[in-house]
Amino acid sequence: MFSINKTNKGNPYLRFLQLAKAIQNLPDAPMLDANENALLEAIALRWFEQKPMTVREAIGLSNLGSPATLHKRITRLRNRDLVQTYSQADDKRAKFLVPTEKSLAMFNDYGKKMNAALTSAD
Asked: Is residue 25, in this structure, part of any structural domain at all?
């Protein structure tokens, strides 16, 4: 028989997932499918860790789609001004993906909304 564990409400990770989903479904959030969102988050996280992701690495994220599909998703994210590419001056072969000011502002806004929700939940 299935029973509800009352301690689940105190699980911080599950609360985080719940808040993240609610924030991403707000009317002012960009309309991204789950895989586009996961790709954008992966790019932003690598940038945040100061190890920007290359286009080649992004296209290799097979859990998010085929290389052709991922290339289309990168193009859509670029067209929506959520990611941009750059090359290093000494090596133009590798293109790196980085979040734009627009996506960083979006993540900052998500963080503020999440903090507000956590504060009001206490």
From this structure: no
Could you tell me the residue range of the domain that residue 66 belongs to? Answer: 33-110
CB 83 within 8 A of CB 96: no
Residue 88: inside a domain, yes or no?
yes
Residues 99 and 83 sit within 8 Å (Cβ to Cβ): yes
* Global pTM value: 0.77
Pick from 34, 40, 52: which is nearest to 96 by CA? 52
Domains of the chain: total = 1
Write down the H helix ranges in the chain: 12-24, 34-48, 55-59, 67-79, 101-121
87-120 pLDDT, tens per residue? 887 877 889 999 999 999 988 888 887 777 767 6
